[in-house]
Amino acid sequence: MEKLFDTTLKNRVILKRFLTETPREELFVIPDGFNNNLFWNIAHVVVTQQLLVYGKSGKELLVSNELVEKYKKGTVPTEEPVSEDEIKEIEALLLSVPKQTMEDYSKGIFTSYESYTTTPQVTLDSAEDAIAFNVFHEGIHLGSILALKRALAK
């Protein structure tokens, strides 16, 4: 499990760099051929980790219901502008949430799990399964972010 947590944190550092080093106006552009933007992908991975690990374990989420509703699976970026406070919140959550998950896991709080089959047809039966799948999921979205950055550069 330690390697999975380490990989997640390394990915989150990369995502945080995209969030903080990309000009604000580029964070919210949806290039032709895409249905989301850089910011949505970053916020989506924060929310999804929470839903898969904490939500399916019956634990209270470390993110607000408002963020869940805006960035969960099946959502798309809205026309309304994202506030500077929300950007800062996502920036803070990028690293704090996986660190808290590591702590909670080491305390043994994830004792039950509601089985869930993901879109790629991977069935998760435990928090360990969810933590492992989350690394894959975040990799998909890092790939999307790299593709978005290339599209924005053109």
Q: In a nutshell, what does this entry contain?
A:
This protein has helices spanning 2-21, 24-27, 38-54, 65-71, 84-107, 127-153; strands at 116-117, 123-124. With 154 residues, it is mainly α. Helix 1 runs parallel beside helix 6 and helix 3 packs parallel to helix 5 (84-107).
Name some characteristics of this structure:
single chain, about 150 residues, two-stranded antiparallel sheet
Descriptive account of the structure:
A hairpin with a 5-residue loop joins strand 1 and strand 2. The protein has a single domain, classed as Four Helix Bundle (Hemerythrin (Met), subunit A). By secondary structure, the chain is mainly α. The protein has a two-stranded antiparallel sheet. It has helices spanning 2-21, 24-27, 38-54, 65-71, 84-107, 127-153, and strands spanning 116-117, 123-124. It is globular.
What's the arrangement of secondary structure elements?
Layout: H1 2-21, H2 24-27, H3 38-54, H4 65-71, H5 84-107, E1 116-117, E2 123-124, H6 127-153
Antiparallel strand pairs: 1-2
Work out the strand percent: under 5%
> Which whole number gives the mean pLDDT?
97
Number of E-type strands = 2
Q: Number of helical runs? A: 6
The number of distinct structural domains comes to 1
Order of helices and strands: HHHHHEEH
Distance between the termini: 40 Å
Per CATH, what is the topology? Answer: Four Helix Bundle (Hemerythrin (Met), subunit A)
* Unreliable residue runs: none
Structural class: mainly alpha
Radius of gyration: 15 Å
How would you sum up the major sheet?
Answer: 2 strands, antiparallel
Shape: globular
Instruction: Give the strand line-up of the largest sheet.
Output: 1-2
**Portion of residues within helices:** 55-70%
CATH superfamily: dinb family like domain
